[in-house]
Amino acid sequence: MTTAATAVYDPQLPDGAPAVAAAARQVSKAYGAGETRVTALDAVDVDIQRGRFTAIMGPSGSGKSTLMHCLAGLDTVSGGRIWIGDTEITGLKDKQLTRLRRDKIGFIFQAFNLLPTLSALENITLPMDIAGRRPDQAWLDQVVETVGLAGRLKHRPAQLSGGQQQRVAVARALAARPEIIFGDEPTGNLDSRAGAEVLTFLRRSVDELGQTIVMVTHDPVAAGYADRVLFLADGVIVDEMHAPTADSVLERMRRFDGKRTS
Lesser CB count within 10 Å: N end or C end of the chain? Predict the structure, then answer.
C-alpha cells in the first residue's frame, strides 16, 4: 500500500502481485462547513487487488459506506484521487462517469432493486439491454450456474424468495463482466440461511470467475467470506486482516470497541 501523497499510481503492484482493480490516494470527504463540518474520510490510501474479495468494516459513522461510494464513483471526493483500473475517475464529467459505472462497475445493495414485471433473466440482462449490448451467452450461462438460478430464470421477483431475489441481483452485477463489484450490506435484508447462500455465491464468483468484490458489512460472519478485511474508524483505515474468519473478525471488533470506550 502506497501512502505518500505524491505517489504516482501504478495499476501493477511489484513482485508479481495481482493488478489493482481500484485505488485511492489521499482521499478525503467532508460534509458541511464551519462548525457543522463533518469529516467522513481523512486522507485515505488503499489498493483493491483484482480477483480478490475485500470487506470493509467499522462502527456506525466510521466512513465505510462513504469510502465505498467514493471508490465506486457514486459520491464525489473533497480531495485526493481515485482510479478504477487504470482510469482516474476523480474529475470525470458526469457522462463519462456514468459510462464508466455502466461498463466497468457492478452494484449489489440491500434492496434487491428488481423490476417486478420482468423475469429473473430479464432483470439479469436489463443493464446490458439498456446499454444496447448483447450478453456473452457462455459467460451468462456460467454466471447463472454459479449463482444457482438455472431453474428459476422465467420466474418474476414475486415468485422468488428473498435469497433468490438477491441471487438475481448478484447475477445482474456479474453478467456484464465488470472490472469490480461493490456491495453495500448485500445480505442485510436476508435471514442467516439466505445470507450464507448469497455470500457463498459471491465467494464462488471470486474463486471460479475471477471477479473482484468490495463489500461493506457490519457482520463478522459475512466478513469471514472475504480474503481481506479493512477496518475503518473516524474516516481512517486503522487496521486490516488477511484470511479472516468470523471469530477473528469478531475478536478484532471487540478489541477495537474496547479501545474506543476506554
Answer: C
Compute the C-alpha angle 199/203/204, nearest 5°.
115
pLDDT value for 84: 93
pLDDT score for 260: 53
Helix (H) or strand (E) holding 103, with range, is helix 94-104
Determine the pLDDT at residue 2: 39
Gap between the Cα atoms of 227 and 51, Å rounded = 10
The span from the CA of 169 to the CA of 114, in Å, is 7
For 18-37, write each residue's pLDDT tens digit.
589 999 999 999 998 878 88
Q: Are strands 236-242 and 228-233 parallel, antiparallel or unpaired?
A: antiparallel
C-alpha cell belonging to residue 42: 481523512
Q: Rounded to whole angstroms, how far apart are CA atoms 6 and 241? A: 26
Residue 143 · residue 174 · CB < 8 Å: yes
Burial of 63 (0-12, 13-18, 19+ CB in 10 A): buried
Domains of the chain in start order, with CATH, are: 50-62+103-261 (3.40.50.300)
**Residue ranges of E strands in the chain:** 20-31, 38-49, 53-57, 79-84, 87-88, 105-109, 180-184, 213-216, 228-233, 236-242
Which parts of the chain have pLDDT scores under 70? 1-18, 257-262
Q: Cα Rg for the chain, rounded, in angstroms?
A: 18
The share of the chain scoring above pLDDT 70, in percent, equals 90
